[in-house]
Amino acid sequence: MSRCMPLSKEIPPMKDLTSDNITENVKILNNQTSSPRVRYVFDRLVSHVHDFVRETCLSTEEWQAGIDFLTAAGQISNELRSEMTLLSDTLGVSLLVDAINHPRHGKATEGTVLGPFHTHDAPVAESGYVLHEDQEAAKLLVLCSVQDTSGEPVADVVCDVWEGDAYGFYDVQNPNRIRPDGRALLRTNKEGKFHFTAVVPVPYPIPMDGPVGKMLTLLKRHPNRPGHIHFMLRKAGYDNLITALYPRGDPYETSDPVFGVKESLVVDLGTVNDQISRAYNVPVGTKMLKYDFVLVPEQEARELRAKRAEEAVKNLDFDVDLMDGLPVLAVD
Amino acid sequence: MSRCMPLSKEIPPMKDLTSDNITENVKILNNQTSSPRVRYVFDRLVSHVHDFVRETCLSTEEWQAGIDFLTAAGQISNELRSEMTLLSDTLGVSLLVDAINHPRHGKATEGTVLGPFHTHDAPVAESGYVLHEDQEAAKLLVLCSVQDTSGEPVADVVCDVWEGDAYGFYDVQNPNRIRPDGRALLRTNKEGKFHFTAVVPVPYPIPMDGPVGKMLTLLKRHPNRPGHIHFMLRKAGYDNLITALYPRGDPYETSDPVFGVKESLVVDLGTVNDQISRAYNVPVGTKMLKYDFVLVPEQEARELRAKRAEEAVKNLDFDVDLMDGLPVLAVD
Fold it and tell me: Same domain, yes or no, for B124 and B258?
């Protein structure tokens, strides 16, 4: 009457597991995987989760609160809202993953957190596009160029831009959203340039109505992100750049709840003069943001990543090899 | 036009965070909480999650897979299914939490994992209750006693028992479930005894249709739990006992995917003879399980837990105090 499959592989018998031997036994089972990378990731995952439980002597009630927290974070998420990303962002994990995967390259534009508000339905648009439907909002002319590390302009870069509105709300936070607003997929021209009209970014609280909001409240942390505009620049042969630009002087510039602000991404806004007004067809006196992005060739980025990975694991107290630039447990 | 609250507390400015300084800066923000225990739990959480990311050089794709995995685990969960608990079980975390919160006490019955199938709607029943509606299943007479560590019987213990059916399915796995089956809330009599009729437990695969199933497949782990009956014994003044009994000889006895089997919980089944048949009104030849549970007074359990907590943190490379028996960061 059993629905079980026969035992397919010999593994050493395990029973009577305790705080002292559970970790190695979980690893014995997990190590059946044929992928060295999966084996390594789970080895480190199990070590750290178990050490966390042991070092905190996590109580049953705290464990249950954690189970309930993660379950609720999954359940409040949908196609347009990723609470788990927000959790990663507010614990500094997203910034860390970005720092590891896109290590600082002398000339290149720094990356920062993607955030939970990126979508895949932004309209394809031409330079000059007005990002927001709101006619009353304070406008911002955004003039950008994209070059490579040797200073050459890069044409045909897909420039995915997104931004909250004049109140700091993203379109996906509007329960009546019927189409994207505050988003566009632009493209650099032959001179590597693109431009659009945004609204002047304002600071805004990250969503506080879910489990992450409860966590920030428990930790007495403020939820306010400094105002910014998101950019994701993609072209085959170049390292994907996910970044954001922050107008200088925001009250939350140095206490960002998702740790995304970098000095090189803080920008002074200018003002549109007569000449620019005529060239871009926006009123004189409109606020203006100019930025020159620098992309890294994919090969250079890959080599730098592998070099940093080697440095990152050289002081661990176990032996590690690199496979495709990523660490795996060394084979004896 | 801002929806932000003013900055309520001075924190040191942070900007330009990198792989090297993100961890300490996340902790500075989290340390604003007024609870020393919350501060400590988040300190260890952030350290371990960040170290996991650094040691694996977690790729953006792997990070995204983790976000998607946890989100899906939340979304497949409902009142009767906790995929996050199953994740904790299959990574050995639940067993570890149980071992820490209910440390082995010489005379007492050992605990084991609660599992994801406990519910709060079991019917209150009298000794002699037949757990399953299935008339055809192989029956098992279960005769239990409950005593304290000095050997005295304990009356009025609430005995929450639950079990899968003859095919290894729990009632909550039946999409057409209209009421509990295979569950009961019994109570010990003045002699500390209770009994009921179960079905002979069979091994069964844990649910493989969710993210945890995908994880086990990736890790080439079998999903089959050895057959067992769950018990949760509660009485004010005694440490809550969550445990299970495993008939000896199951093919999966030493490779349990949730690491729950302990030798002291493996039982030899007997057979009902004439005398027992008359006493309990079950046919001669029915399989029989006898077990004597031993509960620990709450105070003793608390002291043992605090002692183990002290031992657990004494070799950490940072200073820790105990507060209400739980570790917190030592104040200078």
Answer: yes
What is the C-alpha separation between B95 and B112, in angstroms, rounded?
6
Q: CATH number, domain at B135?
A: 2.60.130.10
Interface predicted TM-score of the whole assembly (ipTM), two decimals? 0.93
Type of residue numbered A203: P
- For A64, which DSSP code? H
Q: Do residues B175 and B87 share a domain?
A: yes
Is B276 in a helix, a strand, or coil? helix
- A267 CB within 8 Å of a chain B CB: no
The total domain count for chain A is 1
Could you tell me which chain B residue has the CA closest to the CA of A226? B4
Instruction: Give tens-digit pLDDT for B200-252.
Output: 999 999 999 999 999 999 999 999 999 999 999 999 999 999 999 999 999 99
Domain containing residue A174: 83-296
Chain B residues whose beta carbon lies within 8 Å of the beta carbon of residue A48: 48-49, 51-52
A266 occurs within a structural domain:
yes
Residue B322 placed within a domain: no
**pLDDT tens-place string over residues A83-137:** 999 999 999 999 999 999 999 888 899 999 998 899 999 999 999 999 998 888 9
Percentage of chain A with pLDDT > 70? 97
Give percent of chain B above pLDDT 90: 86
Please indicate, yes or no, if residue A244 is contained in any of the structural domains.
Answer: yes
> Which residues in chain A are contacts of B329 at CB distance < 8 A?
none
